[in-house]
Design a protein that fits this description.
- The complex is a heterodimer.
- Chain A has helices at about 20-35, 45-55, 70-85, 105-110, 120-135; strands at about 10-15, 35-40, 60-65, 90-95, 115.
- Chain A is α/β, with parallel strands linked by helices.
- Chain A has a single domain (about 10-130), classed as 3-Layer(aba) Sandwich (Rossmann fold).
- A five-stranded parallel sheet of chain A has the order 2-1-3-4-5, sandwiched between helices.
- In chain A, strand 3, helix 3 (about 70-85) and strand 4 form a beta-alpha-beta unit.
- In chain A, helix 2 (about 45-55) packs across helix 3.
- By secondary structure, chain B is of the alpha/beta class.
- In chain B, strand 7, helix 7 and strand 8 form a beta-alpha-beta unit.
- The longest helix of chain B is centred in the C-terminal third of the chain and has 43 residues, at about 245-285.
- Chain B is globular, with a radius of gyration of 21 Å.
- The chains are: A alpha/beta, B alpha/beta.
- At the A-B interface, helix 1, strand 2 and helix 2 of A face helix 2, strand 3, strand 4 and helix 9 of B.
Chain lengths: ~140, ~300
């Protein structure tokens, strides 16, 4: 690996009230093992906190893990706040318990990708590497 | 002036965060950005917070942010360093976890830095990151080191005031740390002072180092934080004005220039070696050339290269 070069930085966020962060930790470790720098913010983050964190950390992407069923609300709020702060180039992706039928709506809203239950972590890694590279070039 | 520098200086956090990434990545052109920022640098008070894992560095940093913000206008930046994996280069950065409540405060900027192979407790680019915050008007910068123990002395070369955090129940730490980290502290903090054994730690510290102040805190509740704040300020006032401060500044500038030199030379070496590796490596592997002479070839290329 070269000494200089761009590192992919990702914020892994757990918005809302559900207290299950196992999924978030699994994806955080998988991204780390793929050589990325993962900023982990812990449970019960507000969309405002998530977006401020991503901006301060100069993150390439925000990964949202939701199991509470409130994904419509949180994705919309995070994406809107990024727009408000002129930071729409920060990718938003997500996973957790998100019904198949809700995915097209989230993508239309501006989410880059949704990885449902059973999706291998490698699919998120590949997507991030590809999308961040495309963004830079 | 570059647009990015202008935006950062005018208070645009995204631009500032991007500059910090460029410093971390050693991106092309970062030196020219640093040159543009240089006239605005030199006003910030840099506080280093170091100590063993579990001593309470992040929690204490969180309380110090609160303490300084309550006292009025000064903007506070935090640079928190966590280790990188030596195998993949990846990292999980979780120091923010204990400071997240400050995200709503626009006068606070927090940044997680991965050590990226540095062993002295800071990361590549920490020094530049502190300078960038300095230029952008952050009056106080708190640097939290990785926290793996006694060899983390790089922070001394960057910070104005170094705070070493100890806690009872971490074994014979104080004895073990005698030679390294114990010598660089301007202020010792014995955190978790409500736990048994705290006074013993205080006595052990005093037995080793009679000069530096010792403050007891309970970071979790905030006990002792105002006293720590007062000690920190009194150290800064002494250092800023007097002869020791000038010596420290000279030593710091010296190590900064050495760092820039080492960085530039090793970067050129790396590039030139990459260019000639295919040609030279087989000669060494066939024992037609020894590795020292191989390095000589690259070094003479560098001399040529640097003369332009």
């Amino acid at each position: 690996m070269s000494e200089s070069g761009k590192k992919i930085r990702v914020v892994i966020a757990k918005p809302g009230l559900d207290g299950h962060d196992r999924g978030a930790k699994v994806i955080a470790r998988a991204l780390r093992d793929a050589g990325m720098e993962v900023i982990y913010t812990g449970l019960r983050q507000t969309p405002e906190q998530i977006v401020t964190t991503a901006i301060q950390e100069d993150a390439d992407g925000i990964g949202i893990s939701i199991l509470s069923g409130a994904h419509q609300f949180y994705f919309k709020r995070v994406i809107d706040l990024l727009k408000e702060k002129n930071a729409s180039d920060i990718l938003v992706f997500g996973g957790g318990v998100i019904p198949e039928d809700d995915i097209p709506g989230l993508l239309e809203m501006g989410a880059g990708a949704i990885f449902g239950p059973g999706a291998p972590t490698s699919s998120a890694i590949e997507w991030l590497e590809k999308t961040v590279a495309a963004k830079i070039n | 002036m570059h647009k990015l520098t202008e935006r950062a200086l005018s208070g645009d956090i995204r631009a500032m965060a991007r500059l910090i990434s460029m410093a971390e990545d050693r991106a092309d052109g970062i030196d020219s950005f640093m040159k543009e920022l240089y006239p605005y640098i030199g006003r910030t008070w840099i506080i280093g917070v170091t100590g063993s894992p579990g001593a309470g560095k992040s929690t204490l940093a969180d309380k110090l942010i609160e303490h300084f913000r309550e006292r009025g206008g000064v903007k506070v930046g935090v640079l928190a360093i966590d280790p990188s994996s030596p195998y993949t280069g990846g990292a999980i950065l979780a120091d923010r976890l204990r400071m997240q409540r400050h995200t709503a405060d626009e006068g606070v900027y927090m940044r997680s830095l991965a050590a990226r192979g540095s062993l002295g407790g800071l990361s590549r680019g920490t020094r530049e990151a502190a300078s960038i915050l300095d230029a952008c008007g952050f009056g106080i910068v708190i640097i939290e080191t990785v926290g793996v123990g006694q060899s983390e002395i790089d922070v001394m070369r960057v910070a104005d005031t170094v705070c070493v955090i100890l806690a009872p129940g971490l074994g014979d730490d104080v004895q073990a740390m005698k030679a390294g980290i114990m010598e660089i502290a301007d202020i010792f903090v014995v955190n978790k002072a409500d736990k048994p054994g705290a006074d013993r730690v205080v006595n052990e510290v005093r037995a080793i180092n009679r000069i530096s102040a010792v403050v007891k805190t309970v970071a979790e509740t905030g006990d002792g934080v105002p006293e720590l704040g007062a000690e920190l300020r009194s150290h800064w006032e002494r250092v800023r004005e007097g002869e020791p401060g000038k010596l420290r500044e000279a030593a710091r500038m010296c190590s900064k220039i050495e760092e820039i030199l080492a960085e530039r030379i090793s970067e050129s070496a790396r590039r030139l070696w990459a260019k000639r590796q295919n040609e030279i490596l087989p000669l060494v592997l066939n024992r037609q050339l020894d590795p020292y002479s191989a390095a000589d070839i690259i070094l003479s290329d560098i001399t040529f290269f640097l003369r332009g």
